[in-house]
Design brief:
Distance between the termini: 33 Å
Shape: globular
Low-confidence stretches: none
Number of helices: 7
Radius of gyration: 17 Å
CATH topology: Stationary-phase Survival Protein Sure Homolog, Chain: A
Structural class: alpha/beta
CATH superfamily: Survival protein SurE-like phosphatase/nucleotidase
Helix content: 25-40%
Length: 257
């Protein structure tokens, strides 16, 4: 299957590398087009007020690879229109460093937005994300940050599971359906970890910024928020807490209902 792969953590993330290698191993005709630098929490934004630079690169992924100085949405848009010789049959985004669960965070995710950009090009799309601890997340965002042995093992397993799921997930979505599969892997994730169908948890996330400091700035301070999900829902947040792989289908046509 011809697949376009992007992410929001940047081209140098080991998380996208593991997924790229696993997709190539599965025999897919893969192209990677990813941001030059981290683009977390940018949502579906596009670079409106400046030109966006693209470079072809060889980073050992075993497939054509481009680095784009822009957002995940820029990457997918530019890739489909200008970089790829043949149009992709589906778009995959991730693996994201950290979960992309709950209504409070999915809409802000650059990884989910990269998949959604595929959807608004009429393509089926999947977003993959990996649970990590808060301390590990902070470490991985540093230049020398690397997964510890437990996370590295989980990441390889998650990438293998994701690559094995990719074709059937993409084929299950009709073109021009405006739907995205959102897959979140727990920590740890093993070959025996089961998949549970879920819906995004209803999270209220107020107060994400600090008070105005002496420098006049308000700084982002992460908080998970408050879960106000109806008790009858099987949510992504609950599934991850129970050790399942969470599989939600984000149907963007319902935004107009």
């Amino acid at each position: 299957m011809r697949i376009l792969l992007t992410n929001d953590d940047g081209i140098e993330s080991i998380f996208i590398r593991e997924l790229a290698l696993a997709l190539v191993k599965q025999g897919h005709e893969l192209s990677v087009v990813a941001p030059r630098s981290e683009q977390s929490w940018v949502g579906a934004s596009k670079s409106r007020n400046r030109g966006v630079h693209s470079d072809k690169a060889d980073l050992g992924f075993g497939c054509p690879t481009w680095i784009v100085d822009g957002t995940p949405s820029d990457c997918v848009n530019i890739a489909i229109d200008h970089l790829l010789d043949n149009p992709p049959e589906g778009v995959v985004s991730g693996i994201n460093i950290g979960l992309n669960t709950t209504l409070g965070f999915i809409i802000a995710s650059g990884t989910v937005a990269g998949a959604f950009e595929g959807a608004i090009h009429g393509l089926p799309a999947v977003a993959f994300s990996q649970e990590v601890t808060f301390e590990t997340y902070e470490l991985l965002k540093t230049p020398q940050g690397k997964p510890d042995p437990e996370l590295a093992k989980t990441l390889k397993i998650s990438a293998g599971i994701g690559a094995a799921m990719a074709e059937s997930l993409l084929e299950s979505i009709p073109r021009e359906s405006f739907k995205v599969h959102n897959i979140n892997f727990p920590l740890p994730c093993t070959l025996q970890t089961r998949v549970k169908r879920t819906v995004p948890a209803h999270m209220m996330v107020p107060g994400l910024f600090s008070p105005r400091g002496d420098d006049g700035k308000h700084n982002l301070k992460f908080k998970s928020g408050d879960d106000v999900s109806p008790t009858e829902l099987i949510t992504d947040k609950a599934a991850i807490a129970q050790g399942f792989i969470s599989h939600s289908v984000l149907d963007y046509t319902k935004l107009g209902s």
